[in-house]
Amino acid sequence: MSNRIPAGPVLGAAVAAMLTAGGAGALEIKSSDVHAMGYPTTEAIAYMGDLLNERSGGKYSIKIFHSMQLGGEKEALEQVQLGALEMTRVSVGVVGPIVDDFNAFNLPYVFRSIEHMHNVVDGEIGQELLARLEVGGLIGLGYMDAGARSFYNKIKPIREPADLQGLKIRVMQNPIFVEMMSGMGGTGIPIAFNELYTAMQTGVVDGAENNPPSYSTQKHFEVAGYYSLTEHLIVPEIFVFSKKVWDTLPPEDQQMIREAAKEATKKERELWAAMEQKAMAELQGLGVQINADVDKPAFIAATAPVREKFGEKYKDLIVRIEAVEG
Ligand code: GTR
Protein backbone atom coordinates (compact mmCIF):
# COMPACT_ATOMS: atom_id res chain seq x y z
CA MET A 1 0.00 0.00 0.00
CA SER A 2 2.80 2.33 0.69
CA ASN A 3 4.90 3.35 -2.26
CA ARG A 4 7.75 4.35 -0.06
CA ILE A 5 11.12 3.72 -1.64
CA PRO A 6 12.94 1.01 0.32
CA ALA A 7 15.76 2.40 2.35
CA GLY A 8 19.11 1.02 3.30
CA PRO A 9 21.32 -1.36 1.34
CA VAL A 10 18.57 -2.28 -1.16
CA LEU A 11 18.24 1.31 -2.28
CA GLY A 12 21.99 1.68 -2.33
CA ALA A 13 22.44 -1.26 -4.69
CA ALA A 14 19.60 -0.15 -6.96
CA VAL A 15 20.93 3.37 -7.26
CA ALA A 16 24.44 2.10 -7.88
CA ALA A 17 23.16 -0.15 -10.66
CA MET A 18 21.18 2.68 -12.23
CA LEU A 19 24.14 5.00 -12.12
CA THR A 20 26.40 2.47 -13.75
CA ALA A 21 23.82 1.58 -16.37
CA GLY A 22 23.24 5.15 -17.40
CA GLY A 23 26.62 6.45 -16.41
CA ALA A 24 29.87 7.07 -18.18
CA GLY A 25 31.32 4.04 -19.92
CA ALA A 26 27.99 2.19 -20.06
CA LEU A 27 27.34 0.52 -23.38
CA GLU A 28 24.15 -0.82 -24.84
CA ILE A 29 25.44 -3.19 -27.49
CA LYS A 30 23.14 -3.07 -30.50
CA SER A 31 23.10 -6.42 -32.29
CA SER A 32 21.18 -7.42 -35.39
CA ASP A 33 19.82 -10.72 -36.63
CA VAL A 34 17.58 -11.64 -39.55
CA HIS A 35 15.69 -14.12 -37.37
CA ALA A 36 12.88 -13.38 -34.93
CA MET A 37 13.13 -13.81 -31.17
CA GLY A 38 12.55 -17.45 -30.31
CA TYR A 39 15.07 -18.58 -32.94
CA PRO A 40 18.21 -20.23 -31.46
CA THR A 41 20.55 -17.42 -32.61
CA THR A 42 18.51 -14.51 -31.21
CA GLU A 43 17.84 -16.35 -27.96
CA ALA A 44 21.54 -17.14 -27.53
CA ILE A 45 22.48 -13.47 -28.05
CA ALA A 46 19.78 -12.45 -25.55
CA TYR A 47 21.33 -14.92 -23.11
CA MET A 48 24.75 -13.36 -23.75
CA GLY A 49 23.21 -9.96 -22.97
CA ASP A 50 21.85 -11.25 -19.65
CA LEU A 51 25.23 -12.66 -18.70
CA LEU A 52 27.00 -9.41 -19.55
CA ASN A 53 24.48 -7.29 -17.74
CA GLU A 54 24.78 -9.40 -14.63
CA ARG A 55 28.55 -9.72 -14.69
CA SER A 56 29.19 -6.05 -15.40
CA GLY A 57 26.69 -4.77 -12.86
CA GLY A 58 24.65 -3.15 -15.63
CA LYS A 59 27.53 -1.57 -17.54
CA TYR A 60 26.90 -3.73 -20.60
CA SER A 61 23.63 -4.86 -22.09
CA ILE A 62 22.53 -6.07 -25.53
CA LYS A 63 19.62 -4.70 -27.51
CA ILE A 64 18.64 -7.05 -30.31
CA PHE A 65 17.33 -5.73 -33.61
CA HIS A 66 15.71 -8.95 -34.79
CA SER A 67 13.50 -9.99 -37.71
CA MET A 68 15.46 -8.07 -40.36
CA GLN A 69 14.55 -4.71 -38.77
CA LEU A 70 17.90 -3.46 -40.02
CA GLY A 71 17.65 -5.20 -43.40
CA GLY A 72 19.83 -7.99 -44.78
CA GLU A 73 23.10 -9.45 -43.56
CA LYS A 74 25.38 -7.71 -46.03
CA GLU A 75 24.21 -4.31 -44.81
CA ALA A 76 24.48 -5.40 -41.18
CA LEU A 77 28.11 -6.37 -41.68
CA GLU A 78 28.82 -3.00 -43.30
CA GLN A 79 27.24 -1.20 -40.35
CA VAL A 80 29.39 -3.18 -37.94
CA GLN A 81 32.51 -2.43 -39.95
CA LEU A 82 31.67 1.27 -39.72
CA GLY A 83 30.96 1.06 -35.99
CA ALA A 84 27.35 2.22 -36.42
CA LEU A 85 26.23 -1.14 -35.07
CA GLU A 86 28.25 -2.91 -32.36
CA MET A 87 27.41 -6.49 -33.20
CA THR A 88 25.66 -8.76 -35.69
CA ARG A 89 24.96 -12.46 -36.08
CA VAL A 90 25.11 -13.62 -39.68
CA SER A 91 25.84 -16.74 -41.71
CA VAL A 92 29.47 -17.50 -42.58
CA GLY A 93 28.02 -17.60 -46.10
CA VAL A 94 28.14 -13.79 -46.34
CA VAL A 95 31.52 -13.40 -44.63
CA GLY A 96 33.50 -14.88 -47.56
CA PRO A 97 33.42 -11.58 -49.48
CA ILE A 98 35.05 -9.85 -46.46
CA VAL A 99 37.67 -12.42 -45.50
CA ASP A 100 38.15 -14.70 -48.43
CA ASP A 101 39.44 -17.67 -46.38
CA PHE A 102 35.98 -18.20 -44.93
CA ASN A 103 34.97 -19.47 -48.35
CA ALA A 104 36.74 -22.70 -47.47
CA PHE A 105 33.76 -23.28 -45.12
CA ASN A 106 31.32 -22.29 -47.86
CA LEU A 107 32.17 -25.07 -50.28
CA PRO A 108 29.56 -27.76 -50.88
CA TYR A 109 30.20 -30.99 -48.99
CA VAL A 110 33.47 -29.70 -47.53
CA PHE A 111 32.34 -30.84 -44.09
CA ARG A 112 31.57 -34.54 -43.79
CA SER A 113 29.21 -34.08 -40.85
CA ILE A 114 28.08 -31.60 -38.21
CA GLU A 115 30.63 -33.14 -35.88
CA HIS A 116 33.37 -32.53 -38.46
CA MET A 117 32.29 -28.87 -38.77
CA HIS A 118 32.31 -28.51 -34.96
CA ASN A 119 35.79 -29.95 -34.71
CA VAL A 120 37.03 -27.56 -37.40
CA VAL A 121 35.46 -24.34 -36.09
CA ASP A 122 36.17 -25.12 -32.43
CA GLY A 123 39.76 -26.07 -33.22
CA GLU A 124 42.79 -24.21 -34.54
CA ILE A 125 41.37 -23.48 -38.00
CA GLY A 126 38.17 -21.88 -36.78
CA GLN A 127 39.99 -19.72 -34.26
CA GLU A 128 42.62 -18.67 -36.79
CA LEU A 129 39.91 -17.52 -39.19
CA LEU A 130 38.08 -15.59 -36.48
CA ALA A 131 41.31 -13.68 -35.81
CA ARG A 132 41.68 -12.86 -39.51
CA LEU A 133 38.42 -10.91 -39.41
CA GLU A 134 40.29 -8.03 -37.77
CA VAL A 135 41.62 -6.90 -41.14
CA GLY A 136 38.00 -6.54 -42.21
CA GLY A 137 37.21 -4.34 -39.21
CA LEU A 138 35.49 -7.15 -37.31
CA ILE A 139 36.18 -9.03 -34.09
CA GLY A 140 35.05 -12.63 -34.46
CA LEU A 141 33.36 -13.70 -31.24
CA GLY A 142 32.24 -17.19 -32.15
CA TYR A 143 30.32 -19.65 -34.27
CA MET A 144 26.86 -21.08 -33.90
CA ASP A 145 25.07 -24.03 -35.45
CA ALA A 146 22.86 -23.86 -38.51
CA GLY A 147 22.65 -27.54 -39.43
CA ALA A 148 22.74 -28.48 -43.11
CA ARG A 149 21.14 -26.62 -46.01
CA SER A 150 18.93 -28.38 -48.56
CA PHE A 151 17.00 -27.29 -51.67
CA TYR A 152 13.35 -26.30 -51.76
CA ASN A 153 11.25 -25.08 -54.63
CA LYS A 154 7.70 -24.70 -55.84
CA ILE A 155 7.89 -27.14 -58.77
CA LYS A 156 9.20 -30.60 -57.90
CA PRO A 157 11.26 -32.79 -55.60
CA ILE A 158 15.01 -32.75 -56.29
CA ARG A 159 16.54 -36.21 -56.43
CA GLU A 160 19.65 -35.68 -58.53
CA PRO A 161 21.54 -32.70 -59.99
CA ALA A 162 19.68 -33.00 -63.33
CA ASP A 163 16.47 -32.05 -61.49
CA LEU A 164 17.91 -28.59 -60.88
CA GLN A 165 18.24 -27.84 -64.59
CA GLY A 166 16.18 -24.82 -65.57
CA LEU A 167 15.48 -23.89 -61.94
CA LYS A 168 16.33 -20.47 -60.56
CA ILE A 169 17.49 -20.91 -57.02
CA ARG A 170 18.11 -18.05 -54.60
CA VAL A 171 21.52 -18.22 -52.97
CA MET A 172 23.20 -16.13 -50.26
CA GLN A 173 25.03 -12.99 -51.39
CA ASN A 174 28.39 -14.49 -52.20
CA PRO A 175 29.58 -15.38 -55.76
CA ILE A 176 30.85 -18.76 -54.59
CA PHE A 177 27.25 -19.99 -54.28
CA VAL A 178 26.44 -18.95 -57.85
CA GLU A 179 29.28 -21.20 -58.99
CA MET A 180 28.05 -23.98 -56.76
CA MET A 181 24.64 -23.81 -58.44
CA SER A 182 26.12 -23.83 -61.93
CA GLY A 183 28.16 -26.88 -60.97
CA MET A 184 24.96 -28.63 -59.97
CA GLY A 185 23.16 -27.64 -63.17
CA GLY A 186 20.82 -24.94 -61.83
CA THR A 187 21.00 -21.16 -61.82
CA GLY A 188 22.00 -19.39 -58.60
CA ILE A 189 20.58 -15.93 -58.02
CA PRO A 190 21.92 -13.94 -55.05
CA ILE A 191 19.12 -12.23 -53.14
CA ALA A 192 19.02 -10.90 -49.58
CA PHE A 193 17.16 -13.07 -47.08
CA ASN A 194 14.68 -10.28 -46.35
CA GLU A 195 13.59 -10.23 -50.01
CA LEU A 196 13.33 -13.96 -50.52
CA TYR A 197 9.70 -14.74 -49.68
CA THR A 198 8.45 -12.18 -52.20
CA ALA A 199 11.00 -13.29 -54.78
CA MET A 200 9.63 -16.82 -54.62
CA GLN A 201 6.03 -15.68 -54.51
CA THR A 202 6.39 -13.50 -57.60
CA GLY A 203 8.45 -16.07 -59.50
CA VAL A 204 11.73 -14.13 -59.57
CA VAL A 205 13.15 -17.45 -58.34
CA ASP A 206 11.65 -20.95 -58.19
CA GLY A 207 13.14 -21.81 -54.85
CA ALA A 208 16.06 -21.51 -52.48
CA GLU A 209 18.12 -23.59 -50.08
CA ASN A 210 18.28 -23.50 -46.32
CA ASN A 211 18.02 -25.53 -43.13
CA PRO A 212 14.59 -26.75 -41.92
CA PRO A 213 14.24 -24.14 -39.11
CA SER A 214 14.75 -21.20 -41.52
CA TYR A 215 12.46 -22.73 -44.13
CA SER A 216 9.83 -23.26 -41.47
CA THR A 217 10.04 -20.03 -39.44
CA GLN A 218 10.14 -17.85 -42.57
CA LYS A 219 7.09 -19.71 -43.87
CA HIS A 220 8.83 -20.32 -47.17
CA PHE A 221 6.90 -23.59 -47.45
CA GLU A 222 3.81 -21.51 -48.24
CA VAL A 223 5.33 -20.55 -51.60
CA ALA A 224 7.76 -23.45 -52.19
CA GLY A 225 6.36 -26.73 -50.91
CA TYR A 226 8.99 -29.28 -52.03
CA TYR A 227 11.91 -29.76 -49.62
CA SER A 228 14.62 -32.24 -50.68
CA LEU A 229 17.32 -33.36 -48.26
CA THR A 230 20.43 -32.67 -50.36
CA GLU A 231 22.32 -31.31 -47.31
CA HIS A 232 24.86 -29.76 -49.66
CA LEU A 233 26.15 -27.04 -47.33
CA ILE A 234 27.02 -27.09 -43.65
CA VAL A 235 27.63 -23.39 -43.14
CA PRO A 236 27.92 -22.27 -39.53
CA GLU A 237 26.58 -19.00 -38.19
CA ILE A 238 29.02 -16.43 -36.85
CA PHE A 239 28.72 -13.42 -34.56
CA VAL A 240 31.03 -10.46 -34.85
CA PHE A 241 31.75 -7.23 -32.97
CA SER A 242 32.79 -3.91 -34.44
CA LYS A 243 36.56 -3.50 -34.17
CA LYS A 244 36.09 0.27 -34.07
CA VAL A 245 34.05 0.01 -30.88
CA TRP A 246 36.02 -2.95 -29.50
CA ASP A 247 39.27 -0.97 -29.54
CA THR A 248 37.73 1.60 -27.17
CA LEU A 249 36.91 -1.04 -24.52
CA PRO A 250 39.19 -1.92 -21.59
CA PRO A 251 40.93 -5.30 -22.02
CA GLU A 252 39.16 -6.80 -19.00
CA ASP A 253 35.78 -5.90 -20.54
CA GLN A 254 36.82 -7.40 -23.88
CA GLN A 255 37.65 -10.57 -21.98
CA MET A 256 34.25 -10.52 -20.27
CA ILE A 257 32.54 -10.19 -23.66
CA ARG A 258 34.58 -13.05 -25.09
CA GLU A 259 33.64 -15.29 -22.19
CA ALA A 260 29.94 -14.50 -22.49
CA ALA A 261 30.21 -15.13 -26.24
CA LYS A 262 31.58 -18.61 -25.60
CA GLU A 263 28.61 -19.38 -23.41
CA ALA A 264 26.26 -18.00 -26.06
CA THR A 265 27.69 -20.47 -28.58
CA LYS A 266 27.08 -23.34 -26.17
CA LYS A 267 23.55 -22.17 -25.50
CA GLU A 268 22.77 -21.83 -29.21
CA ARG A 269 23.92 -25.37 -29.96
CA GLU A 270 21.55 -26.77 -27.35
CA LEU A 271 18.67 -24.69 -28.66
CA TRP A 272 19.54 -25.58 -32.24
CA ALA A 273 19.33 -29.34 -31.77
CA ALA A 274 15.82 -29.00 -30.32
CA MET A 275 14.70 -26.50 -32.95
CA GLU A 276 15.81 -28.65 -35.88
CA GLN A 277 13.79 -31.62 -34.65
CA LYS A 278 10.78 -29.46 -33.96
CA ALA A 279 10.91 -27.83 -37.41
CA MET A 280 11.05 -31.16 -39.24
CA ALA A 281 8.07 -32.48 -37.28
CA GLU A 282 6.08 -29.30 -37.91
CA LEU A 283 6.82 -29.31 -41.63
CA GLN A 284 5.58 -32.88 -41.93
CA GLY A 285 2.38 -31.89 -40.17
CA LEU A 286 1.91 -28.99 -42.58
CA GLY A 287 1.87 -31.26 -45.60
CA VAL A 288 5.25 -30.15 -46.97
CA GLN A 289 6.62 -32.71 -49.43
CA ILE A 290 9.84 -33.75 -47.76
CA ASN A 291 11.96 -35.82 -50.09
CA ALA A 292 14.64 -37.97 -48.48
CA ASP A 293 15.27 -39.95 -51.67
CA VAL A 294 18.31 -37.94 -52.78
CA ASP A 295 21.30 -39.26 -54.71
CA LYS A 296 23.91 -37.58 -52.52
CA PRO A 297 26.94 -39.19 -54.21
CA ALA A 298 25.72 -37.62 -57.50
CA PHE A 299 25.59 -34.19 -55.85
CA ILE A 300 29.02 -34.69 -54.32
CA ALA A 301 30.40 -35.63 -57.74
CA ALA A 302 28.66 -32.73 -59.51
CA THR A 303 30.21 -30.22 -57.12
CA ALA A 304 33.74 -31.66 -57.33
CA PRO A 305 34.79 -29.05 -59.95
CA VAL A 306 33.76 -26.22 -57.59
CA ARG A 307 35.75 -27.75 -54.75
CA GLU A 308 38.70 -28.26 -57.07
CA LYS A 309 38.61 -24.74 -58.48
CA PHE A 310 38.39 -23.07 -55.09
CA GLY A 311 40.37 -25.86 -53.52
CA GLU A 312 43.38 -24.58 -55.41
CA LYS A 313 42.95 -21.16 -53.84
CA TYR A 314 42.39 -22.44 -50.30
CA LYS A 315 44.60 -25.50 -50.70
CA ASP A 316 46.35 -25.41 -47.33
CA LEU A 317 43.15 -24.75 -45.47
CA ILE A 318 41.25 -27.51 -47.23
CA VAL A 319 43.98 -30.07 -46.62
CA ARG A 320 43.87 -29.14 -42.95
CA ILE A 321 40.05 -29.27 -42.84
CA GLU A 322 40.09 -32.73 -44.41
CA ALA A 323 42.60 -33.94 -41.83
CA VAL A 324 40.32 -32.96 -38.93
CA GLU A 325 38.36 -35.87 -37.51
CA GLY A 326 34.61 -36.23 -37.55
C1 GTR B 1 19.85 -18.88 -42.43
C2 GTR B 1 20.81 -18.13 -41.57
C3 GTR B 1 20.67 -16.66 -41.79
C4 GTR B 1 20.71 -16.30 -43.26
C5 GTR B 1 19.84 -17.17 -44.08
C6 GTR B 1 20.02 -16.94 -45.59
O1 GTR B 1 20.06 -20.26 -42.27
O2 GTR B 1 20.54 -18.39 -40.22
O3 GTR B 1 21.71 -16.03 -41.07
O4 GTR B 1 22.02 -16.37 -43.74
O5 GTR B 1 20.05 -18.54 -43.79
O6 GTR B 1 19.95 -17.87 -46.34
O7 GTR B 1 20.24 -15.78 -45.98
Describe the structure in your own words.
This protein has 326 residues and is of the alpha/beta class. The strands form 3 sheets. The protein has a 5-stranded mixed sheet with strand order 2-1-3-10-4, with helices on both faces. Helix 2 links the parallel strand 1 and strand 2. Helix 2 packs antiparallel against helix 10. The longest helix is centred in the last third of the chain and has 35 residues. Helices cover 44% and strands 18% of the residues. It has 13 helices and 11 strands. The structure holds beta-D-galactopyranuronic acid (GTR). Beta-D-galactopyranuronic acid binds next to strand 3.
Order of helices and strands: HEHEHEHHEEEHEHEHEEHHEHHH
* Total number of strands: 11
Termini Cα gap: 63 Å
Q: Which structural class best describes the helix and strand composition?
A: alpha/beta
- Our Rg estimate from Cα atoms comes to 21 Å
Descriptive labels:
globular, alpha/beta, binds beta-D-galactopyranuronic acid, four-stranded mixed beta sheet, 44% helix, 326 residues, disordered N terminus, single chain, 13 helices
Entry summary:
With 326 residues, this protein is of the alpha/beta class. The chain contains 13 helices and eleven strands.
